[in-house]
Amino acid sequence: MNLPTALINELKLYLKQRASNGDLEAQTLLEQVELVATSSPEIRQQSMFVEPSAELELGC
Predict the structure, then answer these.
(1) 8-27 pLDDT, tens digit each
(2) What pTM value is reported for the model?
(3) Structural domain range at position 27
(4) Is 51 among the domain residues?
């Protein structure tokens, strides 16, 4: 999935703000976004095929 850099930066900014307010889910997501952003294309491709855990529930 190719996301524009501006969108990724906005997402990271939002997640940093939420994480600084104690949102642990935002902190976890921020770490994952930063990991994907700095990984090789092969790793990013492989990460798209990882099934989410059964306990994962988005608080949206």
Answers:
(1) 899 999 999 999 999 999 99
(2) 0.61
(3) 5-37
(4) no
